[in-house]
Amino acid sequence: MSKRTKLKFKKMLKKAEFVHADLEYHEELMVDAKVEFNEAFLDKISNWPKRKRIDWSFHLQGVQDERAKKLLEQAEKQRQEKLAEAEAEQNTSIVKNKEVFIDGETGREFYTNPDEIEETDTDDKKGIIKKLYRKIASETHPDKLIASGFSQGEVTRKESIFKKAKEAYERDNWYTLYSVAVDLGIEVGEIDEKHIDWIEEDIKLTMGRISQMGQLFTWVWYTSDDEGKERIMDQYFKQVYNWPPDEG
Predict the structure, then answer these.
(1) Is 38 part of a structural domain of the chain?
(2) 77 and 155 housed in the same domain
(3) 114 and 69 in one domain?
(4) CA 202 to chain centre
(5) What is the 3-class SS of 97-142, one letter each residue?
(6) CA distance linking residue 85 with residue 106, whole number of Å
(7) Cβ–Cβ contacts within 10 Å for residue 114, how many?
(8) Region 36-50: what's the mean pLDDT?
(9) Which residue, among 173, 92, 106, has the nearest Cα to 141 in the 3D structure?
(10) Is 207 contained in some domain?
(11) What distance in Å separates the CA atoms of residue 76 and residue 112, rounded to the nearest whole number?
């Protein structure tokens, strides 16, 4: 790695650390925001006159019935997609001479002996991410920790790391996997310009997640003054529940 690439990589790492810290800040505050927003939502309803609360109950039931119908349609669509994926996987040859684990939540396979990677693996982004994830999983997957002899505290810590790595893997997030691997002392390979590009992509995506969170009713309400909170709550009732209902 040239000096210029090394310095640029270091700079991008610092930027990524900052935006991820900002995302963590928003996510942690969002927990409190949701609690306070829900309390304000219920308080507003409880302060309505009895007749209005009855009308709201009937209106809400209609809204919920329509949403339930849409959720059932989405669930059926997802079920059909999973069946199609399962059928496709059955038609794919699987290497039998390696120790294989199945991720209980995603159904994905990964190998716990990362030094024996299939020849079909490539050096593109997905291939590199897969290799890095397997190395991390070989040290942190819950199935590997059961008979490890680690203390409960260490098992809990590694399970948390595995969860973080799995989420990064599912998002094709090389930066987070890289950070986890470095913390675990795992070899990450030679760094070059493409890795810098991947960090830049991660920064943009992370900033996008922060921006989306900042536009949510809950967040806007939480960060507003009392007058703004009242106005935003009324907008929430109207846009989300069409309340009060449109006449005619």
Answers:
(1) no
(2) no
(3) no
(4) 13
(5) CCCEEECCCCCCEEECCCCCCCCCCCCCHHHHHHHHHHHHHHHHCH
(6) 12
(7) 20
(8) 96
(9) 106
(10) yes
(11) 34
The span from the CA of 28 to the CA of 24, in Å, is 6
- Residue 105 has a pLDDT of 54
Q: What angle do CA 111, 197, 192 make, to 5 degrees?
A: 70
Separation between Cα atoms, residue 89 and residue 94, nearest integer Å: 9
Residues near 200 by beta carbon (within 8 Å), at least 6 away in sequence: 12
The model's pTM: 0.71
Q: Total domain count for the chain?
A: 3
pLDDT the model gives residue 119: 44
**For 11-41, how does the pLDDT look when each residue is reduced to its tens digit (9 = 90+)?**
999 999 999 999 999 999 999 999 999 999 9
Question: Count of CB atoms within 10 A of residue 51's CB?
Answer: 8
- 93 has pLDDT over 60: no
| 142-198 per-position pLDDT tens digit | 777 766 677 777 888 888 999 999 999 998 999 999 999 999 999 988 899 999 999
Q: Which domain holds residue 61?
A: 56-92
Write down the residue that tokens 């304000």 correspond to. Answer: 40
Tell me which amino acid residue 10 is.
K
Structure-token pair, residue 56:
């709201």
Please check the confidence at residue 94 and state whether its pLDDT lies above 90: no
Tell me, yes or no, whether 18 lies in a domain: no
Q: Between residues 207 and 98, which one has the greater pLDDT? A: 207
- 114 closest CA partner among 93, 96, 100: 100
Residues 76, 139, single domain; the answer is no
d(CA 111, CA 133): 10
